[in-house]
User: Fold this.
Amino acid sequence: MDIIKAENVSLSFRRGLFKKRLKALEDLSLSVHEGDIFALLGPNGAGKSTAMYCFLGLIQPDSGNISVFGRKPYPGSDIFKDIAYLPEEPHYHMYLTVREAVNYYAALYENGISSKKVDEAIERVGLSEFRDLKLSKCSKGMKQKAGIAQCLVNNSKILFLDEPTRGLDPITVKEFRDILMDMNRNGATIVLNSHVLSEIEVICNRVAIINKGKVIVQDELRHLRNLDLETYTVEFGITESLPEYVAVKMKTAETIRAEIPISKLPEFMRFTQDSSLKLYECSLKKASLEDAFFNILKGEG
Amino acid sequence: MPSSISLKEKDKVFPQLAANIGVNFKFYRRNRLLLVASIFIIGVLGLSTIPALLFLSKTKHLELINIIFSELSSFTTIITAALGLLFISYHIRNRTTKMVFTKPCSPDVWLLSSLVSASIVSLVLFAGIFSICSILFLVWKIPFQWGIIYVTVNDFLHVTIILSYITFLAVLFHPVIAVLFIFIFHDSTFYSLKLLLAGGIKASNDGPLSLALKIAKWFVAFIYMIIPTSKPFSEKMSVIYSSLRISAENWQYLFLAFIYTLVVTTLFYLLSLYFLKKKQHI
Assistant:
Protein backbone atom coordinates (compact mmCIF):
# COMPACT_ATOMS: atom_id res chain seq x y z
CA MET A 1 0.00 0.00 0.00
CA ASP A 2 1.31 3.49 -0.90
CA ILE A 3 1.53 5.52 2.27
CA ILE A 4 3.09 8.52 0.49
CA LYS A 5 2.37 9.34 -3.11
CA ALA A 6 3.55 12.17 -5.35
CA GLU A 7 2.10 12.46 -8.84
CA ASN A 8 3.56 14.80 -11.45
CA VAL A 9 4.62 17.34 -8.88
CA SER A 10 6.20 20.51 -10.25
CA LEU A 11 7.42 23.45 -8.26
CA SER A 12 9.45 26.52 -9.03
CA PHE A 13 10.83 29.22 -6.79
CA ARG A 14 11.19 32.87 -7.70
CA ARG A 15 14.58 34.19 -6.69
CA GLY A 16 16.58 37.38 -7.02
CA LEU A 17 15.74 40.97 -7.82
CA PHE A 18 13.93 40.13 -11.03
CA LYS A 19 12.17 37.12 -9.51
CA LYS A 20 13.81 34.69 -11.88
CA ARG A 21 11.97 31.37 -11.98
CA LEU A 22 14.02 28.41 -10.76
CA LYS A 23 12.63 24.96 -11.28
CA ALA A 24 12.96 22.97 -8.07
CA LEU A 25 10.80 19.97 -8.96
CA GLU A 26 9.72 18.87 -12.40
CA ASP A 27 7.04 16.31 -12.93
CA LEU A 28 8.20 14.38 -9.90
CA SER A 29 6.34 11.16 -9.24
CA LEU A 30 7.17 8.64 -6.58
CA SER A 31 5.51 6.38 -4.09
CA VAL A 32 6.56 5.08 -0.72
CA HIS A 33 5.05 1.81 0.45
CA GLU A 34 4.02 1.14 4.01
CA GLY A 35 6.96 -0.31 5.95
CA ASP A 36 9.60 1.00 3.54
CA ILE A 37 12.86 2.56 4.53
CA PHE A 38 12.98 4.86 1.57
CA ALA A 39 15.91 7.07 0.62
CA LEU A 40 15.89 10.15 -1.55
CA LEU A 41 19.28 10.41 -3.21
CA GLY A 42 20.77 13.03 -5.42
CA PRO A 43 23.45 15.66 -5.71
CA ASN A 44 23.21 19.00 -3.89
CA GLY A 45 20.35 21.09 -5.21
CA ALA A 46 18.67 18.08 -6.81
CA GLY A 47 15.40 18.78 -4.99
CA LYS A 48 15.49 16.13 -2.26
CA SER A 49 14.73 18.47 0.64
CA THR A 50 12.16 20.35 -1.46
CA ALA A 51 10.41 17.06 -2.19
CA MET A 52 10.39 16.32 1.53
CA TYR A 53 8.96 19.78 2.31
CA CYS A 54 6.19 19.05 -0.17
CA PHE A 55 5.43 15.73 1.56
CA LEU A 56 5.25 17.66 4.84
CA GLY A 57 2.94 20.31 3.38
CA LEU A 58 5.45 23.06 4.18
CA ILE A 59 5.45 24.01 0.50
CA GLN A 60 2.49 23.65 -1.82
CA PRO A 61 3.53 22.53 -5.31
CA ASP A 62 2.56 24.55 -8.40
CA SER A 63 0.98 21.48 -9.94
CA GLY A 64 0.55 17.79 -9.27
CA ASN A 65 -0.79 15.88 -6.30
CA ILE A 66 0.75 14.75 -3.03
CA SER A 67 -0.92 12.48 -0.56
CA VAL A 68 0.27 11.19 2.79
CA PHE A 69 -2.00 8.58 4.40
CA GLY A 70 -4.26 9.30 1.43
CA ARG A 71 -4.68 12.96 2.39
CA LYS A 72 -3.22 16.22 1.17
CA PRO A 73 -0.66 17.50 3.70
CA TYR A 74 -0.77 21.08 4.98
CA PRO A 75 0.90 22.79 7.98
CA GLY A 76 -0.41 21.53 11.31
CA SER A 77 -2.72 19.02 9.65
CA ASP A 78 -4.17 16.10 11.61
CA ILE A 79 -2.00 13.64 9.68
CA PHE A 80 0.97 14.86 11.72
CA LYS A 81 -0.23 13.00 14.77
CA ASP A 82 1.38 9.96 13.12
CA ILE A 83 4.41 11.74 11.66
CA ALA A 84 7.79 12.69 13.07
CA TYR A 85 10.18 15.02 11.27
CA LEU A 86 13.86 15.67 11.75
CA PRO A 87 14.95 18.83 9.89
CA GLU A 88 18.25 19.19 8.06
CA GLU A 89 19.13 22.43 9.83
CA PRO A 90 18.52 22.62 13.58
CA HIS A 91 15.56 25.00 13.43
CA TYR A 92 14.64 24.34 17.02
CA HIS A 93 13.50 26.69 19.77
CA MET A 94 17.02 27.60 20.83
CA TYR A 95 15.95 29.44 23.97
CA LEU A 96 14.62 26.18 25.46
CA THR A 97 16.66 23.54 27.22
CA VAL A 98 16.93 20.08 25.65
CA ARG A 99 14.25 18.70 27.97
CA GLU A 100 11.94 21.70 27.57
CA ALA A 101 12.20 21.50 23.78
CA VAL A 102 11.49 17.76 23.57
CA ASN A 103 8.69 18.19 26.10
CA TYR A 104 7.19 21.05 24.06
CA TYR A 105 7.28 19.16 20.77
CA ALA A 106 5.76 16.15 22.53
CA ALA A 107 3.00 18.33 23.99
CA LEU A 108 1.94 19.35 20.49
CA TYR A 109 0.87 15.78 19.76
CA GLU A 110 -2.73 15.07 20.59
CA ASN A 111 -2.17 12.02 22.73
CA GLY A 112 -0.56 13.71 25.72
CA ILE A 113 2.91 12.19 25.87
CA SER A 114 4.14 11.64 29.42
CA SER A 115 7.27 13.33 30.74
CA LYS A 116 8.60 9.83 31.50
CA LYS A 117 8.54 9.07 27.80
CA VAL A 118 10.30 12.36 27.08
CA ASP A 119 13.04 11.46 29.57
CA GLU A 120 13.35 8.00 28.03
CA ALA A 121 13.79 9.49 24.55
CA ILE A 122 16.45 11.90 25.83
CA GLU A 123 18.21 9.04 27.57
CA ARG A 124 18.06 6.87 24.47
CA VAL A 125 19.99 9.44 22.44
CA GLY A 126 22.48 9.91 25.27
CA LEU A 127 21.57 13.45 26.24
CA SER A 128 20.50 12.80 29.83
CA GLU A 129 23.31 14.74 31.43
CA PHE A 130 22.72 17.70 29.09
CA ARG A 131 18.94 17.79 29.47
CA ASP A 132 19.05 21.15 31.26
CA LEU A 133 21.42 22.74 28.77
CA LYS A 134 19.91 25.35 26.47
CA LEU A 135 19.79 24.27 22.83
CA SER A 136 21.62 27.45 21.85
CA LYS A 137 24.57 26.22 23.93
CA CYS A 138 24.52 22.68 22.50
CA SER A 139 26.96 21.47 19.88
CA LYS A 140 25.76 20.57 16.39
CA GLY A 141 25.73 16.87 17.22
CA MET A 142 23.83 17.45 20.46
CA LYS A 143 21.21 19.49 18.63
CA GLN A 144 20.85 16.66 16.14
CA LYS A 145 20.41 14.20 19.01
CA ALA A 146 17.75 16.45 20.55
CA GLY A 147 16.03 16.42 17.16
CA ILE A 148 16.17 12.63 17.10
CA ALA A 149 14.78 12.49 20.64
CA GLN A 150 11.74 14.55 19.62
CA CYS A 151 11.15 12.05 16.80
CA LEU A 152 11.12 9.19 19.29
CA VAL A 153 8.54 10.51 21.76
CA ASN A 154 5.57 9.68 19.60
CA ASN A 155 5.04 6.24 18.11
CA SER A 156 4.93 7.75 14.64
CA LYS A 157 3.91 5.74 11.60
CA ILE A 158 6.07 7.83 9.27
CA LEU A 159 9.45 9.38 10.00
CA PHE A 160 10.81 12.07 7.68
CA LEU A 161 14.53 12.45 8.25
CA ASP A 162 16.47 15.14 6.44
CA GLU A 163 20.21 14.33 6.62
CA PRO A 164 19.72 12.48 9.92
CA THR A 165 23.32 11.51 10.63
CA ARG A 166 24.82 14.94 9.95
CA GLY A 167 27.15 15.95 12.76
CA LEU A 168 26.82 12.67 14.64
CA ASP A 169 29.78 10.64 15.86
CA PRO A 170 30.14 7.05 14.55
CA ILE A 171 28.86 5.51 17.80
CA THR A 172 25.70 7.61 17.72
CA VAL A 173 25.28 6.87 14.00
CA LYS A 174 25.30 3.16 14.80
CA GLU A 175 22.87 3.63 17.71
CA PHE A 176 20.61 5.78 15.55
CA ARG A 177 20.65 3.17 12.82
CA ASP A 178 19.60 0.55 15.37
CA ILE A 179 16.79 2.80 16.59
CA LEU A 180 15.55 3.27 13.01
CA MET A 181 15.65 -0.45 12.28
CA ASP A 182 13.81 -1.09 15.52
CA MET A 183 11.12 1.45 14.66
CA ASN A 184 10.79 0.00 11.19
CA ARG A 185 10.37 -3.50 12.64
CA ASN A 186 7.55 -2.06 14.73
CA GLY A 187 5.81 -0.85 11.56
CA ALA A 188 7.18 2.66 10.97
CA THR A 189 7.80 3.84 7.44
CA ILE A 190 10.95 5.90 7.11
CA VAL A 191 11.76 8.44 4.42
CA LEU A 192 15.21 9.94 4.52
CA ASN A 193 17.53 12.21 2.62
CA SER A 194 21.19 11.52 2.89
CA HIS A 195 24.48 11.95 1.10
CA VAL A 196 26.04 9.06 2.99
CA LEU A 197 25.48 6.30 0.43
CA SER A 198 27.10 3.61 2.58
CA GLU A 199 24.63 4.48 5.31
CA ILE A 200 21.67 4.17 2.96
CA GLU A 201 22.98 0.90 1.62
CA VAL A 202 22.84 -0.58 5.11
CA ILE A 203 19.35 0.47 6.11
CA CYS A 204 17.19 1.28 3.09
CA ASN A 205 15.15 -1.12 1.02
CA ARG A 206 13.95 1.37 -1.62
CA VAL A 207 15.62 4.32 -3.23
CA ALA A 208 14.70 7.18 -5.55
CA ILE A 209 17.48 9.02 -7.31
CA ILE A 210 16.59 12.64 -7.99
CA ASN A 211 18.46 15.00 -10.26
CA LYS A 212 17.43 18.48 -11.35
CA GLY A 213 14.05 18.03 -9.71
CA LYS A 214 13.20 14.83 -11.57
CA VAL A 215 13.09 11.25 -10.36
CA ILE A 216 15.55 9.39 -12.56
CA VAL A 217 15.20 5.98 -10.99
CA GLN A 218 12.95 4.62 -8.31
CA ASP A 219 13.41 1.03 -7.34
CA GLU A 220 14.34 -1.47 -4.73
CA LEU A 221 17.92 -1.11 -3.65
CA ARG A 222 18.84 -4.67 -4.61
CA HIS A 223 17.58 -4.05 -8.16
CA LEU A 224 19.46 -0.80 -8.44
CA ARG A 225 22.71 -2.46 -7.48
CA ASN A 226 22.30 -5.05 -10.21
CA LEU A 227 22.09 -2.65 -13.12
CA ASP A 228 24.92 -4.38 -15.04
CA LEU A 229 27.36 -2.80 -12.70
CA GLU A 230 29.13 -5.82 -11.31
CA THR A 231 32.65 -6.32 -12.66
CA TYR A 232 35.73 -8.48 -12.14
CA THR A 233 38.83 -6.96 -10.72
CA VAL A 234 41.87 -8.47 -12.38
CA GLU A 235 45.61 -8.07 -11.84
CA PHE A 236 48.03 -9.35 -14.46
CA GLY A 237 51.53 -8.94 -15.84
CA ILE A 238 52.64 -6.01 -17.99
CA THR A 239 51.65 -6.03 -21.64
CA GLU A 240 51.63 -3.41 -24.37
CA SER A 241 48.31 -4.01 -26.04
CA LEU A 242 45.06 -4.47 -24.12
CA PRO A 243 41.53 -5.20 -25.35
CA GLU A 244 39.30 -2.14 -25.18
CA TYR A 245 36.93 -3.61 -22.53
CA VAL A 246 39.77 -3.66 -19.98
CA ALA A 247 39.55 -0.56 -17.80
CA VAL A 248 42.99 0.01 -16.28
CA LYS A 249 42.81 1.30 -12.70
CA MET A 250 46.50 1.08 -11.70
CA LYS A 251 49.75 0.35 -13.46
CA THR A 252 53.04 -0.48 -11.72
CA ALA A 253 56.37 -1.61 -13.17
CA GLU A 254 55.32 -5.26 -12.92
CA THR A 255 51.53 -5.44 -12.88
CA ILE A 256 48.39 -3.90 -14.23
CA ARG A 257 45.24 -3.69 -12.10
CA ALA A 258 42.03 -3.36 -14.11
CA GLU A 259 38.29 -4.01 -14.20
CA ILE A 260 36.46 -6.03 -16.80
CA PRO A 261 32.72 -6.58 -17.34
CA ILE A 262 31.38 -9.95 -16.18
CA SER A 263 30.39 -10.92 -19.72
CA LYS A 264 33.94 -10.43 -20.97
CA LEU A 265 35.59 -12.81 -18.48
CA PRO A 266 35.94 -15.83 -20.86
CA GLU A 267 37.31 -13.55 -23.56
CA PHE A 268 39.79 -12.03 -21.12
CA MET A 269 40.91 -15.50 -20.00
CA ARG A 270 41.60 -16.43 -23.62
CA PHE A 271 43.52 -13.17 -24.05
CA THR A 272 45.79 -13.88 -21.05
CA GLN A 273 46.45 -17.45 -22.33
CA ASP A 274 47.19 -16.27 -25.87
CA SER A 275 49.47 -13.51 -24.61
CA SER A 276 51.09 -15.80 -21.98
CA LEU A 277 50.27 -13.24 -19.32
CA LYS A 278 50.55 -14.08 -15.66
CA LEU A 279 47.22 -13.60 -13.89
CA TYR A 280 47.73 -12.66 -10.23
CA GLU A 281 44.16 -11.92 -9.20
CA CYS A 282 40.63 -12.29 -10.48
CA SER A 283 37.82 -11.43 -8.09
CA LEU A 284 34.19 -10.41 -8.43
CA LYS A 285 33.61 -6.81 -7.48
CA LYS A 286 30.01 -6.42 -6.34
CA ALA A 287 28.40 -3.19 -7.37
CA SER A 288 27.78 -0.74 -4.54
CA LEU A 289 25.05 1.85 -4.33
CA GLU A 290 27.76 4.40 -4.94
CA ASP A 291 28.60 2.77 -8.28
CA ALA A 292 24.94 2.63 -9.23
CA PHE A 293 24.41 6.22 -8.16
CA PHE A 294 27.31 7.56 -10.21
CA ASN A 295 26.49 5.45 -13.24
CA ILE A 296 22.88 6.54 -13.23
CA LEU A 297 23.79 10.19 -12.84
CA LYS A 298 26.47 9.86 -15.52
CA GLY A 299 23.90 8.33 -17.85
CA GLU A 300 21.65 11.33 -17.22
CA GLY A 301 24.43 13.60 -18.38
CA MET B 1 -21.96 14.54 14.99
CA PRO B 2 -20.90 18.18 14.96
CA SER B 3 -21.00 18.49 18.76
CA SER B 4 -18.61 15.57 19.25
CA ILE B 5 -16.25 16.98 16.60
CA SER B 6 -16.11 20.35 18.28
CA LEU B 7 -15.55 18.68 21.65
CA LYS B 8 -12.67 16.69 20.16
CA GLU B 9 -11.23 19.86 18.63
CA LYS B 10 -11.46 21.61 22.00
CA ASP B 11 -9.76 18.68 23.71
CA LYS B 12 -6.90 19.05 21.26
CA VAL B 13 -6.69 22.84 21.06
CA PHE B 14 -6.54 23.74 24.76
CA PRO B 15 -3.54 21.55 25.70
CA GLN B 16 -1.71 22.80 22.57
CA LEU B 17 -2.58 26.39 23.37
CA ALA B 18 -1.37 25.91 26.95
CA ALA B 19 1.89 24.28 25.74
CA ASN B 20 2.51 27.14 23.31
CA ILE B 21 1.72 29.82 25.89
CA GLY B 22 4.12 28.17 28.36
CA VAL B 23 6.90 28.24 25.77
CA ASN B 24 6.06 31.82 24.77
CA PHE B 25 6.54 32.97 28.37
CA LYS B 26 9.93 31.26 28.41
CA PHE B 27 10.79 33.17 25.24
CA TYR B 28 9.82 36.47 26.87
CA ARG B 29 11.76 35.65 30.03
CA ARG B 30 14.92 34.61 28.23
CA ASN B 31 15.00 37.24 25.51
CA ARG B 32 17.82 39.63 26.34
CA LEU B 33 16.70 42.21 23.80
CA LEU B 34 13.35 42.44 25.59
CA LEU B 35 15.07 42.78 28.94
CA VAL B 36 17.34 45.56 27.72
CA ALA B 37 14.41 47.31 26.00
CA SER B 38 12.33 47.11 29.21
CA ILE B 39 15.11 48.57 31.35
CA PHE B 40 15.69 51.33 28.80
CA ILE B 41 12.01 52.24 28.56
CA ILE B 42 11.57 52.20 32.34
CA GLY B 43 14.63 54.44 32.62
CA VAL B 44 13.37 56.94 30.05
CA LEU B 45 9.84 57.01 31.46
CA GLY B 46 11.18 57.23 35.01
CA LEU B 47 13.36 60.20 34.12
CA SER B 48 10.43 61.99 32.59
CA THR B 49 8.14 61.24 35.56
CA ILE B 50 10.46 61.97 38.49
CA PRO B 51 10.54 65.79 37.99
CA ALA B 52 6.75 65.85 38.06
CA LEU B 53 6.71 63.74 41.22
CA LEU B 54 9.23 65.99 42.94
CA PHE B 55 8.02 69.40 41.93
CA LEU B 56 4.28 69.05 41.55
CA SER B 57 2.34 70.52 44.47
CA LYS B 58 0.87 68.05 46.94
CA THR B 59 -2.53 69.52 46.21
CA LYS B 60 -2.25 68.08 42.75
CA HIS B 61 -2.11 64.44 43.79
CA LEU B 62 -4.78 63.44 41.31
CA GLU B 63 -2.71 64.93 38.53
CA LEU B 64 0.28 62.94 39.78
CA ILE B 65 -1.70 59.72 39.68
CA ASN B 66 -2.73 60.63 36.15
CA ILE B 67 0.91 61.17 35.12
CA ILE B 68 2.03 57.91 36.71
CA PHE B 69 -0.80 56.02 35.05
CA SER B 70 -0.07 57.56 31.68
CA GLU B 71 3.68 56.79 31.85
CA LEU B 72 3.20 53.20 33.01
CA SER B 73 0.51 52.67 30.40
CA SER B 74 2.90 53.89 27.67
CA PHE B 75 5.51 51.45 28.98
CA THR B 76 2.99 48.58 28.82
CA THR B 77 1.98 49.55 25.29
CA ILE B 78 5.59 49.54 24.05
CA ILE B 79 6.49 46.32 25.87
CA THR B 80 3.41 44.44 24.67
CA ALA B 81 3.98 45.57 21.10
CA ALA B 82 7.64 44.49 21.42
CA LEU B 83 6.56 41.08 22.73
CA GLY B 84 4.28 40.55 19.73
CA LEU B 85 6.84 41.82 17.23
CA LEU B 86 9.86 39.94 18.59
CA PHE B 87 8.00 36.70 19.12
CA ILE B 88 6.60 36.48 15.59
CA SER B 89 9.77 37.77 13.93
CA TYR B 90 12.07 35.45 15.87
CA HIS B 91 10.06 32.33 15.11
CA ILE B 92 9.43 33.09 11.45
CA ARG B 93 12.96 34.24 10.73
CA ASN B 94 14.54 31.30 12.60
CA ARG B 95 12.07 28.94 10.94
CA THR B 96 11.11 27.30 14.21
CA THR B 97 7.53 27.34 12.92
CA LYS B 98 8.66 24.38 10.80
CA MET B 99 8.95 22.34 14.00
CA VAL B 100 5.49 23.38 15.18
CA PHE B 101 3.59 22.99 11.92
CA THR B 102 4.97 19.51 11.31
CA LYS B 103 3.12 18.47 14.46
CA PRO B 104 -0.67 18.33 14.64
CA CYS B 105 -0.63 21.97 15.80
CA SER B 106 -2.19 24.34 13.30
CA PRO B 107 -0.93 27.87 12.57
CA ASP B 108 -4.29 29.05 13.98
CA VAL B 109 -3.39 27.77 17.45
CA TRP B 110 0.20 28.96 17.30
CA LEU B 111 -0.76 32.48 16.25
CA LEU B 112 -3.54 32.63 18.81
CA SER B 113 -1.07 31.56 21.52
CA SER B 114 1.18 34.47 20.54
CA LEU B 115 -1.67 36.98 20.93
CA VAL B 116 -2.96 35.40 24.13
CA SER B 117 0.49 35.27 25.80
CA ALA B 118 1.27 38.92 25.06
CA SER B 119 -2.25 39.90 26.14
CA ILE B 120 -1.79 38.05 29.44
CA VAL B 121 1.44 40.01 30.05
CA SER B 122 -0.36 43.22 29.17
CA LEU B 123 -3.27 42.31 31.46
CA VAL B 124 -0.93 41.59 34.36
CA LEU B 125 0.93 44.87 33.80
CA PHE B 126 -2.33 46.84 33.67
CA ALA B 127 -3.52 45.07 36.83
CA GLY B 128 -0.25 46.19 38.42
CA ILE B 129 -0.72 49.77 37.19
CA PHE B 130 -4.26 49.79 38.54
CA SER B 131 -3.04 48.47 41.89
CA ILE B 132 -0.30 51.12 42.12
CA CYS B 133 -2.78 53.91 41.34
CA SER B 134 -5.32 52.51 43.82
CA ILE B 135 -2.68 52.38 46.55
CA LEU B 136 -1.72 55.99 45.78
CA PHE B 137 -5.38 57.01 46.18
CA LEU B 138 -5.29 55.40 49.64
CA VAL B 139 -1.86 56.75 50.63
CA TRP B 140 -2.64 60.32 49.57
CA LYS B 141 -6.11 60.03 51.08
CA ILE B 142 -7.97 61.29 48.04
CA PRO B 143 -11.37 59.93 46.99
CA PHE B 144 -11.11 56.94 44.69
CA GLN B 145 -12.01 57.85 41.12
CA TRP B 146 -13.79 55.14 39.15
CA GLY B 147 -12.33 56.64 36.03
CA ILE B 148 -9.08 54.81 36.80
CA ILE B 149 -10.82 51.49 36.11
CA TYR B 150 -12.26 52.96 32.93
CA VAL B 151 -8.97 54.22 31.54
CA THR B 152 -7.15 51.02 32.58
CA VAL B 153 -9.63 48.86 30.68
CA ASN B 154 -9.64 51.23 27.71
CA ASP B 155 -5.83 51.31 27.53
CA PHE B 156 -5.77 47.52 27.71
CA LEU B 157 -8.11 47.45 24.69
CA HIS B 158 -5.87 49.97 22.92
CA VAL B 159 -2.81 47.77 23.55
CA THR B 160 -4.69 44.73 22.26
CA ILE B 161 -5.39 46.49 18.95
CA ILE B 162 -1.73 47.60 18.66
CA LEU B 163 -0.62 44.03 19.44
CA SER B 164 -2.83 42.47 16.75
CA TYR B 165 -1.70 45.13 14.24
CA ILE B 166 2.01 44.59 14.92
CA THR B 167 1.52 40.81 14.83
CA PHE B 168 0.06 41.21 11.35
CA LEU B 169 2.95 43.44 10.27
CA ALA B 170 5.53 41.06 11.78
CA VAL B 171 4.08 38.17 9.77
CA LEU B 172 4.48 40.22 6.58
CA PHE B 173 7.66 42.22 7.04
CA HIS B 174 11.11 42.37 8.59
CA PRO B 175 10.76 43.68 12.18
CA VAL B 176 12.47 46.99 11.36
CA ILE B 177 10.06 47.62 8.48
CA ALA B 178 7.17 46.58 10.72
CA VAL B 179 8.21 49.16 13.33
CA LEU B 180 8.58 51.89 10.69
CA PHE B 181 5.21 50.91 9.30
CA ILE B 182 3.47 51.17 12.65
CA PHE B 183 4.93 54.61 13.23
CA ILE B 184 3.88 55.90 9.82
CA PHE B 185 0.82 53.94 8.85
CA HIS B 186 -1.75 54.77 11.50
CA ASP B 187 -4.94 56.80 11.64
CA SER B 188 -3.51 59.98 13.21
CA THR B 189 -0.87 60.31 10.45
CA PHE B 190 -3.59 60.25 7.83
CA TYR B 191 -5.79 62.57 9.87
CA SER B 192 -2.96 65.14 10.05
CA LEU B 193 -2.26 64.67 6.36
CA LYS B 194 -5.94 65.21 5.59
CA LEU B 195 -5.92 68.48 7.53
CA LEU B 196 -2.70 69.54 5.81
CA LEU B 197 -4.16 68.86 2.37
CA ALA B 198 -7.38 70.69 3.27
CA GLY B 199 -5.26 73.71 4.19
CA GLY B 200 -3.36 73.38 0.93
CA ILE B 201 -6.56 73.29 -1.11
CA LYS B 202 -7.79 76.42 0.64
CA ALA B 203 -4.53 78.21 0.02
CA SER B 204 -4.30 77.20 -3.64
CA ASN B 205 -7.43 79.22 -4.45
CA ASP B 206 -8.60 76.88 -7.22
CA GLY B 207 -5.23 77.20 -8.88
CA PRO B 208 -3.65 74.51 -11.11
CA LEU B 209 -2.48 72.56 -8.05
CA SER B 210 -5.93 72.45 -6.51
CA LEU B 211 -7.21 69.41 -8.44
CA ALA B 212 -4.14 67.36 -7.58
CA LEU B 213 -4.48 68.30 -3.92
CA LYS B 214 -8.19 67.41 -3.95
CA ILE B 215 -7.46 63.99 -5.42
CA ALA B 216 -4.72 63.47 -2.82
CA LYS B 217 -7.13 64.51 -0.06
CA TRP B 218 -9.80 62.05 -1.25
CA PHE B 219 -7.21 59.32 -1.33
CA VAL B 220 -5.89 60.17 2.15
CA ALA B 221 -9.46 60.47 3.47
CA PHE B 222 -10.26 57.05 2.02
CA ILE B 223 -7.26 55.46 3.76
CA TYR B 224 -8.16 57.30 6.97
CA MET B 225 -11.66 55.84 6.77
CA ILE B 226 -10.56 52.25 6.20
CA ILE B 227 -7.54 52.09 8.49
CA PRO B 228 -8.54 50.88 11.95
CA THR B 229 -7.85 53.23 14.80
CA SER B 230 -6.17 51.98 17.94
CA LYS B 231 -8.07 54.44 20.14
CA PRO B 232 -11.75 54.40 19.26
CA PHE B 233 -13.93 57.14 20.77
CA SER B 234 -10.81 58.94 21.99
CA GLU B 235 -12.49 62.36 21.72
CA LYS B 236 -15.44 61.19 23.82
CA MET B 237 -13.07 59.77 26.42
CA SER B 238 -10.56 62.62 26.62
CA VAL B 239 -12.33 64.22 29.59
CA ILE B 240 -12.18 60.97 31.56
CA TYR B 241 -8.45 60.70 30.89
CA SER B 242 -7.81 64.21 32.24
CA SER B 243 -10.15 64.13 35.26
CA LEU B 244 -10.48 60.39 35.99
CA ARG B 245 -14.16 61.09 36.63
CA ILE B 246 -16.92 59.27 34.83
CA SER B 247 -20.64 59.42 34.46
CA ALA B 248 -22.98 56.52 33.75
CA GLU B 249 -23.26 57.25 30.01
CA ASN B 250 -19.49 56.98 29.56
CA TRP B 251 -19.60 53.22 30.09
CA GLN B 252 -21.37 52.68 26.78
CA TYR B 253 -18.30 54.01 24.95
CA LEU B 254 -16.13 51.52 26.79
CA PHE B 255 -18.50 48.75 25.77
CA LEU B 256 -18.42 49.94 22.15
CA ALA B 257 -14.63 50.18 22.33
CA PHE B 258 -14.59 46.58 23.55
CA ILE B 259 -16.73 45.44 20.59
CA TYR B 260 -14.53 47.46 18.21
CA THR B 261 -11.36 45.90 19.68
CA LEU B 262 -12.84 42.44 19.28
CA VAL B 263 -13.68 43.08 15.62
CA VAL B 264 -10.34 44.70 14.73
CA THR B 265 -8.29 42.07 16.60
CA THR B 266 -10.22 39.29 14.87
CA LEU B 267 -9.67 40.99 11.52
CA PHE B 268 -5.90 41.32 12.05
CA TYR B 269 -5.73 37.78 13.43
CA LEU B 270 -7.42 36.39 10.32
CA LEU B 271 -5.23 38.49 8.01
CA SER B 272 -2.09 37.39 9.86
CA LEU B 273 -3.24 33.79 9.66
CA TYR B 274 -3.89 34.06 5.93
CA PHE B 275 -0.40 35.36 5.24
CA LEU B 276 1.20 32.96 7.73
CA LYS B 277 -0.38 30.03 5.91
CA LYS B 278 0.78 31.45 2.58
CA LYS B 279 4.38 31.57 3.78
CA GLN B 280 6.78 28.77 2.99
CA HIS B 281 8.00 27.48 6.34
CA ILE B 282 11.26 26.00 5.06
